[in-house]
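Put briefly, the fold is written as integer tokens. The lines below illustrate.
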Amino acid sequence: MKKERFQAPTSNHPEFAVRREMISGYFSPPLPKSTFYDLVNKGKIIPMKALTGFYLLNDSLRRLGLREVTELPNAPASRSAEDIARMAFHAIDPELFPAPSWLLTVDSIDSVDVRHAELVFTGHVDQVEALANDRLKIAYLQGVLDFIAVAEAQREYPVE
């Protein structure tokens, strides 16, 4: 007999990537760190797979028995394609590609930007991991960033 894995019910609400403080803020008083990480270990609060330090807000709220949100109290800023590419490459190899500076200070990331970063991650992870050394990996990232710059320039100033 095959065991069925637990799967959280799906929702029509968008998913947000948020830091610990944002989820803790849904409680009064806010959750202490130890309690928060106990809930992570029990599977009630869901960490993002690709970004360390970020958690899935609506999935976590649903598992905690709280009402999901359609938008964050402070809407996160939309990021540029370069910002998203840097975030995705950080997820590929955090030791080689440092986290973008904006990622260290933001409380949440827009769900569209998270999906975009996941697509960039999926599209490049195999190629980056197949490269022989770190210099080639850094050069690969630079090629991606150059492509983004050229694509954005062509969008602003189309060639006739």
Summary: Residues 1-8 have pLDDT under 50 and may be disordered. The helical segments are 20-24, 33-41, 57-63, 81-92, 101-105, 111-130, 134-156. The chain has seven helices and four strands. The longest strand covers residues 17-18.
